Backbone:
């Protein structure tokens, strides 16, 4: 295992990872509440978080957690992402960011303290499904390859 430092190199690698994902999948072009958002965050955010969680936690001593963002009005899971060891959030589309992106009056944030595939599957509305509307070319294999390529550079 390796120890991780959140220095410029780590930040650069994680930023380049999200940039490559956005280059591959693009941004939502359909009108709606997620117009202009990264396509990876409009459906396949759960599989991305799961793959990132698995790869990171195999490589580094300092573990990450999966985080769910729930819409307070509907109690539906709105987004799934990662909490990095330094407390910041990370996803494939926006990269490193903090909790302020999710307004407390609109969203409830819940960390998955212990990995539970059943809960992740439920909140992702299925980890093995297709994303024909917003991310039709999504490939877990390709995303896993990109994640590993960048994490191995840290």
Residues:
């Amino acid at each position: 295992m390796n120890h991780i430092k959140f220095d410029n190199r780590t930040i650069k690698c994680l930023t380049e990872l999200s940039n490559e994902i956005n280059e591959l999948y693009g941004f939502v072009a359909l009108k709606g509440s997620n117009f202009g958002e990264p396509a990876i965050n409009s459906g396949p955010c759960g599989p991305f978080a799961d793959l990132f969680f698995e790869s990171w936690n195999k490589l580094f001593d300092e573990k990450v957690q999966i985080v769910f963002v729930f819409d307070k009005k509907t109690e539906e899971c709105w987004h799934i992402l990662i909490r990095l060891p330094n407390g910041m959030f990370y996803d494939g589309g926006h990269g490193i960011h903090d909790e302020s992106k999710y307004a407390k009056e609109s969203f409830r944030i819940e960390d998955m303290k212990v990995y539970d595939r059943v809960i992740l599957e439920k909140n992702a509305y299925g980890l093995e499904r297709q994303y024909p509307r917003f991310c039709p070319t999504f490939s877990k294999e390709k995303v896993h390859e990109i994640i590993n390529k960048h994490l191995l550079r840290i």
Notes: The chain has a mean pLDDT of 95.
